[in-house]
Amino acid sequence: MSRRTGLPVKTIRFYSDEDLLPPTDRTSSGYRLYDVTALARLELIKTLRELGLGLADVSAVLARETSVSRLAHRHIDALDEQIRRLRLRRAVLRAVVKRESELEEVKLMNKLASMSDDERARLVDEFWQEVTDGLEVDPEFYARMSSAKPHLPDDPSPEQLEAWIELAELIQDADFRAAIRRMGESHADTWTAGEEVIPAQEAWADWSERAQTALDAGLAPDSAEGRALADDVARTWAGEGQDPADRTFRAFVADRIAVGTDHRAERYWQLMATINGWGAIPTRVPAVEWLTAALRV
């Protein structure tokens, strides 16, 4: 039997002792004898064990208490989970090599990488809950903001894993939470006053592009381009009874824009984009800061 199957004699005896492979007969001196049927049974046991089935599962198949197909389906699910965890471990190790991480960072990275999508989503939900708790804000606006969740793929790149680690650290940072809370308070004041939270939304892409172009060209906020852009913003923003040329009004507009301008808030969305593979989100905060400076001139 050992020569025919390639299994050690010790293994065959073990299966026999476990009642997986009862001998067909025994000699007068007690040696176990096996026939062709037993040989086929041993080949089946060998195959099932090579596929990763435990002794209990093998016994259930041989006793026809379950089917190979049903067990295979269950083991596929288990293997998929093992593969997912191995890929995450590989991603952590790649990130460790790339960042030359020390022990404490490695422990944090492994903990965050091992979280499920549901656990990651809960972390984000808790963040948005805290920064808006008790505020009268536009529910649709904040529903859109909080609907984006980090979905780390089964085989993340080091960049995706690093982005998730940075995002998890960011949303647990007290200063960042306070900054987003201040944005929420400003939003709530505007919302309850019946004003537009983000006036002239359709013009923002043009304003941002013009500010970025001027910034790239090395122009100052008090340049002709800066003054022209400030004029357009103030004129579009001004409501009834408001003078777009008034310095106080322009300072008010600049303050409103500045409240919603934060490098870390932009970084939040850039990290979310990296994790979820949305494509790069360009940095616009310096351009918006240039625009607010132009309004204050």
TrEMBL record:
GO molecular function, one term: DNA-binding transcription factor activity
Highest taxon above the source species: Bacteria
Pfam families: MerR_1 (PF13411)
Transmembrane segments: none
Domain HTH merR-type residue range list: 1-64
InterPro entries for the chain: DNA-bd_dom_put_sf, MerR-type_HTH_dom, MerR_fam
Keyword DNA-binding: yes
Swiss-Prot/TrEMBL keywords: DNA-binding
Protein name (record): DNA-binding transcriptional MerR regulator
Source species of the chain: Amycolatopsis endophytica
Lineage: Bacteria, Bacillati, Actinomycetota, Actinomycetes, Pseudonocardiales
